[in-house]
Protein backbone atom coordinates (compact mmCIF):
# COMPACT_ATOMS: atom_id res chain seq x y z
CA UNK A 1 0.00 0.00 0.00
CA UNK A 2 3.03 2.33 -0.07
CA UNK A 3 1.99 3.45 -3.55
CA UNK A 4 -1.06 5.05 -1.95
CA UNK A 5 0.71 6.87 0.88
CA UNK A 6 0.47 10.27 -0.77
CA UNK A 7 -3.30 9.86 -0.99
CA UNK A 8 -3.52 8.71 2.63
CA UNK A 9 -1.39 11.65 3.77
CA UNK A 10 -3.68 14.18 2.07
CA UNK A 11 -6.72 12.49 3.58
CA UNK A 12 -5.13 12.44 7.03
CA UNK A 13 -4.45 16.17 6.82
CA UNK A 14 -8.06 16.85 5.82
CA UNK A 15 -9.44 14.70 8.64
CA UNK A 16 -7.19 16.46 11.13
CA UNK A 17 -8.70 19.76 10.01
CA UNK A 18 -12.20 18.31 10.15
CA UNK A 19 -11.85 17.38 13.81
CA UNK A 20 -11.71 21.02 14.90
CA UNK A 21 -14.81 21.82 12.83
CA UNK A 22 -16.76 18.68 13.69
CA UNK A 23 -16.36 18.92 17.45
CA UNK A 24 -18.15 22.30 17.34
CA UNK A 25 -20.87 21.24 14.89
CA UNK A 26 -24.52 20.47 15.57
CA UNK A 27 -24.06 17.30 13.52
CA UNK A 28 -21.85 15.78 16.23
CA UNK A 29 -23.69 17.35 19.24
CA UNK A 30 -20.64 16.95 21.51
CA UNK A 31 -22.14 18.69 24.55
CA UNK A 32 -25.30 16.55 24.42
CA UNK A 33 -23.10 13.51 23.87
CA UNK A 34 -21.19 14.30 27.05
CA UNK A 35 -24.54 14.41 28.87
CA UNK A 36 -25.39 10.90 27.72
CA UNK A 37 -26.88 11.12 24.22
CA UNK A 38 -25.80 8.17 22.08
CA UNK A 39 -24.26 8.59 18.62
CA UNK A 40 -25.39 5.13 17.54
CA UNK A 41 -28.24 4.55 15.09
CA UNK A 42 -30.98 1.94 15.01
CA UNK A 43 -29.25 -0.33 12.48
CA UNK A 44 -26.04 -0.94 14.41
CA UNK A 45 -27.84 -1.08 17.77
CA UNK A 46 -30.15 -3.83 16.53
CA UNK A 47 -27.37 -5.73 14.77
CA UNK A 48 -24.90 -5.82 17.68
CA UNK A 49 -27.49 -6.34 20.41
CA UNK A 50 -26.22 -6.73 23.97
CA UNK A 51 -22.52 -5.85 23.96
CA UNK A 52 -21.94 -6.05 27.71
CA UNK A 53 -18.55 -7.59 28.51
CA UNK A 54 -17.80 -8.07 24.80
CA UNK A 55 -14.52 -6.88 23.31
CA UNK A 56 -15.10 -4.55 20.37
CA UNK A 57 -12.73 -3.12 17.78
CA UNK A 58 -14.02 -0.01 16.01
CA UNK A 59 -12.23 0.69 12.72
CA UNK A 60 -12.04 4.25 11.34
CA UNK A 61 -13.59 5.71 14.48
CA UNK A 62 -13.06 9.46 13.75
CA UNK A 63 -13.00 11.11 17.21
CA UNK A 64 -14.53 8.15 18.96
CA UNK A 65 -18.16 8.96 19.64
CA UNK A 66 -19.46 5.58 18.49
CA UNK A 67 -16.62 3.79 20.27
CA UNK A 68 -17.50 5.59 23.48
CA UNK A 69 -21.21 4.93 22.95
CA UNK A 70 -20.46 1.20 22.78
CA UNK A 71 -18.30 1.59 25.87
CA UNK A 72 -21.23 3.16 27.71
CA UNK A 73 -23.26 0.07 26.79
CA UNK A 74 -20.71 -2.17 28.48
CA UNK A 75 -18.31 -3.21 25.71
CA UNK A 76 -14.53 -3.21 26.14
CA UNK A 77 -13.62 -0.99 23.23
CA UNK A 78 -10.63 -0.16 21.08
CA UNK A 79 -10.92 2.55 18.42
CA UNK A 80 -8.57 3.03 15.47
CA UNK A 81 -8.29 6.03 13.16
CA UNK A 82 -5.75 7.62 10.81
CA UNK A 83 -6.23 11.13 12.27
CA UNK A 84 -3.97 11.96 15.21
CA UNK A 85 -6.19 14.94 16.05
CA UNK A 86 -9.23 12.66 16.05
CA UNK A 87 -7.54 10.16 18.35
CA UNK A 88 -6.39 12.94 20.68
CA UNK A 89 -9.97 14.21 21.03
CA UNK A 90 -11.26 10.66 21.51
CA UNK A 91 -8.78 10.13 24.34
CA UNK A 92 -9.80 13.46 25.88
CA UNK A 93 -13.48 12.52 25.79
CA UNK A 94 -12.73 9.06 27.17
CA UNK A 95 -10.95 10.60 30.16
CA UNK A 96 -13.60 13.28 30.70
CA UNK A 97 -16.41 10.72 30.63
CA UNK A 98 -14.44 8.30 32.82
CA UNK A 99 -14.75 5.44 30.35
CA UNK A 100 -12.17 2.75 29.65
CA UNK A 101 -11.92 2.75 25.85
CA UNK A 102 -8.50 2.57 24.17
CA UNK A 103 -7.64 4.62 21.08
CA UNK A 104 -4.84 4.04 18.59
CA UNK A 105 -3.73 6.27 15.74
CA UNK A 106 -2.86 4.32 12.61
CA UNK A 107 -4.00 3.65 9.07
CA UNK A 108 -6.77 1.05 9.30
CA UNK A 109 -4.76 -1.15 6.92
CA UNK A 110 -1.93 -1.24 9.49
CA UNK A 111 -4.15 -2.16 12.44
CA UNK A 112 -2.52 -5.54 13.07
CA UNK A 113 0.86 -3.80 13.42
CA UNK A 114 -0.51 -1.89 16.40
CA UNK A 115 -3.15 -4.23 17.85
CA UNK A 116 -2.53 -7.91 18.62
CA UNK A 117 -5.71 -8.60 20.61
CA UNK A 118 -8.51 -10.63 19.06
CA UNK A 119 -12.06 -9.33 19.52
CA UNK A 120 -15.61 -10.60 19.85
CA UNK A 121 -16.82 -7.86 17.49
CA UNK A 122 -15.25 -5.75 14.77
CA UNK A 123 -17.41 -2.77 13.83
CA UNK A 124 -17.29 0.02 11.24
CA UNK A 125 -19.89 2.39 9.82
CA UNK A 126 -21.01 5.17 7.47
CA UNK A 127 -18.47 6.50 5.01
CA UNK A 128 -15.51 4.23 5.67
CA UNK A 129 -14.60 1.92 2.78
CA UNK A 130 -14.43 4.71 0.21
CA UNK A 131 -11.11 5.81 1.73
CA UNK A 132 -9.51 2.47 0.83
CA UNK A 133 -8.08 1.63 -2.60
CA UNK A 134 -8.29 -2.16 -2.13
CA UNK A 135 -10.71 -3.96 0.16
CA UNK A 136 -8.88 -7.28 0.43
CA UNK A 137 -6.19 -6.06 2.87
CA UNK A 138 -8.96 -4.41 4.89
CA UNK A 139 -10.98 -7.63 5.05
CA UNK A 140 -7.86 -9.60 5.97
CA UNK A 141 -7.26 -7.24 8.91
CA UNK A 142 -10.83 -7.82 10.09
CA UNK A 143 -10.41 -11.60 9.98
CA UNK A 144 -7.06 -11.39 11.79
CA UNK A 145 -8.55 -9.39 14.64
CA UNK A 146 -11.65 -11.53 15.19
CA UNK A 147 -11.83 -14.39 17.66
CA UNK A 148 -13.26 -17.69 16.36
CA UNK A 149 -17.00 -17.27 16.71
CA UNK A 150 -16.71 -13.49 16.67
CA UNK A 151 -18.47 -11.34 14.10
CA UNK A 152 -17.89 -8.35 11.87
CA UNK A 153 -20.61 -5.78 11.23
CA UNK A 154 -20.62 -2.91 8.75
CA UNK A 155 -23.38 -0.45 7.92
CA UNK A 156 -22.33 1.77 5.05
CA UNK A 157 -23.67 4.05 2.36
CA UNK A 158 -24.71 2.05 -0.68
CA UNK A 159 -22.31 2.05 -3.67
CA UNK A 160 -25.02 3.69 -5.77
CA UNK A 161 -24.91 6.74 -3.48
CA UNK A 162 -21.20 7.19 -4.24
CA UNK A 163 -21.91 7.36 -7.98
CA UNK A 164 -23.33 10.86 -7.50
CA UNK A 165 -21.51 14.15 -7.19
CA UNK A 166 -23.59 15.69 -4.42
CA UNK A 167 -21.49 18.82 -3.82
CA UNK A 168 -23.84 20.86 -5.98
CA UNK A 169 -27.47 21.53 -5.14
CA UNK A 170 -28.74 18.75 -7.38
CA UNK A 171 -26.87 15.40 -7.26
CA UNK A 172 -25.36 14.44 -10.61
CA UNK A 173 -24.58 10.87 -11.66
CA UNK A 174 -20.83 11.13 -12.30
CA UNK A 175 -18.73 8.22 -11.01
CA UNK A 176 -18.56 4.52 -11.87
CA UNK A 177 -20.26 1.96 -9.62
CA UNK A 178 -16.97 0.14 -9.20
CA UNK A 179 -14.62 2.78 -10.55
CA UNK A 180 -10.99 1.70 -10.21
CA UNK A 181 -9.47 5.13 -10.78
CA UNK A 182 -8.94 7.33 -7.75
CA UNK A 183 -11.51 10.11 -7.26
CA UNK A 184 -10.23 13.50 -6.11
CA UNK A 185 -12.52 16.14 -4.65
CA UNK A 186 -11.68 19.58 -3.30
CA UNK A 187 -14.36 21.75 -1.78
CA UNK A 188 -15.07 24.21 1.02
CA UNK A 189 -16.77 22.94 4.17
CA UNK A 190 -17.55 19.42 5.39
CA UNK A 191 -20.62 17.18 5.56
CA UNK A 192 -21.00 18.21 9.21
CA UNK A 193 -20.74 21.96 8.55
CA UNK A 194 -21.27 23.07 4.97
CA UNK A 195 -20.72 26.71 6.00
CA UNK A 196 -17.23 26.09 7.32
CA UNK A 197 -14.38 27.84 5.51
CA UNK A 198 -12.03 24.87 5.78
CA UNK A 199 -10.95 23.31 2.50
CA UNK A 200 -11.48 19.55 2.22
CA UNK A 201 -9.06 17.75 -0.10
CA UNK A 202 -9.96 14.08 -0.44
CA UNK A 203 -8.94 11.01 -2.40
CA UNK A 204 -11.38 8.10 -2.53
CA UNK A 205 -12.36 4.93 -4.35
CA UNK A 206 -15.72 3.38 -5.26
CA UNK A 207 -16.40 -0.27 -4.38
CA UNK A 208 -19.39 -2.27 -5.61
CA UNK A 209 -21.18 -4.77 -3.38
CA UNK A 210 -19.60 -7.66 -5.29
CA UNK A 211 -16.14 -6.43 -4.31
CA UNK A 212 -17.18 -6.00 -0.68
CA UNK A 213 -18.67 -9.50 -0.47
CA UNK A 214 -15.75 -11.13 -2.28
CA UNK A 215 -13.18 -9.46 -0.01
CA UNK A 216 -14.99 -10.54 3.16
CA UNK A 217 -15.52 -14.14 2.06
CA UNK A 218 -11.98 -14.42 0.65
CA UNK A 219 -10.70 -13.45 4.10
CA UNK A 220 -12.45 -16.55 5.45
CA UNK A 221 -15.53 -14.98 7.02
CA UNK A 222 -19.03 -16.44 6.66
CA UNK A 223 -21.66 -13.89 5.68
CA UNK A 224 -24.80 -14.15 7.79
CA UNK A 225 -26.71 -11.51 5.85
CA UNK A 226 -26.54 -8.62 3.42
CA UNK A 227 -29.37 -6.10 3.64
CA UNK A 228 -29.94 -3.14 1.34
CA UNK A 229 -31.86 -0.31 3.00
CA UNK A 230 -33.81 2.54 1.38
CA UNK A 231 -33.50 4.95 4.32
CA UNK A 232 -30.57 6.65 6.03
CA UNK A 233 -29.99 8.29 9.42
CA UNK A 234 -28.20 11.06 7.52
CA UNK A 235 -29.52 13.47 4.91
CA UNK A 236 -27.01 12.54 2.23
CA UNK A 237 -28.83 14.36 -0.60
CA UNK A 238 -30.81 17.60 -0.71
CA UNK A 239 -34.60 17.35 -0.92
CA UNK A 240 -34.90 14.11 1.05
CA UNK A 241 -38.00 13.27 3.08
CA UNK A 242 -37.94 12.38 6.78
CA UNK A 243 -40.06 9.34 7.62
CA UNK A 244 -41.91 8.48 10.84
CA UNK A 245 -38.78 6.79 12.26
CA UNK A 246 -36.67 9.91 11.81
CA UNK A 247 -34.78 8.42 8.86
CA UNK A 248 -34.32 10.10 5.49
CA UNK A 249 -35.56 8.72 2.16
CA UNK A 250 -35.38 9.84 -1.45
CA UNK A 251 -38.77 10.69 -2.90
CA UNK A 252 -39.00 7.97 -5.53
CA UNK A 253 -37.05 5.23 -3.68
CA UNK A 254 -35.39 4.18 -6.93
CA UNK A 255 -32.30 2.80 -5.19
CA UNK A 256 -31.11 1.88 -1.69
CA UNK A 257 -29.16 4.32 0.48
CA UNK A 258 -27.41 1.91 2.85
CA UNK A 259 -26.25 -1.66 3.06
CA UNK A 260 -25.38 -3.72 6.11
CA UNK A 261 -23.40 -6.94 6.39
CA UNK A 262 -22.86 -9.26 9.31
CA UNK A 263 -20.16 -11.91 8.93
CA UNK A 264 -18.77 -14.45 11.40
CA UNK A 265 -15.41 -16.08 11.85
CA UNK A 266 -15.88 -19.83 12.06
From TrEMBL:
Q: Could you name the domain of life of the organism this protein comes from?
A: Bacteria
What keywords are annotated for this sequence in UniProt?
Methyltransferase, Transferase
Q: Which Pfam families match?
A: Methyltransf_11 (PF08241)
Q: Where is the Methyltransferase type domain positioned along the sequence? A: 58-154
Record field: transmembrane: none
Keyword match Methyltransferase: yes
Give the Gene Ontology MF terms in alphabetical order.
Answer: S-adenosylmethionine-dependent methyltransferase activity
Where would one find coiled-coil regions in this protein? none
Question: Which Gene Ontology terms describe the biological processes this protein takes part in?
Answer: methylation
Q: Which SUPFAM superfamilies match?
A: S-adenosyl-L-methionine-dependent methyltransferases
Q: What is this protein called?
A: Methyltransferase family protein
Species of origin reads Aquimarina brevivitae
Amino acid sequence: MKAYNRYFNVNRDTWNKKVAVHKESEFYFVEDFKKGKTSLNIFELEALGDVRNKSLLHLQCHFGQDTLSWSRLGARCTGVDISDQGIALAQQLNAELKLDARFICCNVLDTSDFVDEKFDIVFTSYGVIGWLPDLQPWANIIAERLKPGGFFYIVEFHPIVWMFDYLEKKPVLKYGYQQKEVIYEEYTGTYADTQSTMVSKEYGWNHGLGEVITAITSAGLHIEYLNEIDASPYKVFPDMLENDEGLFEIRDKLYPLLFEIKATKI
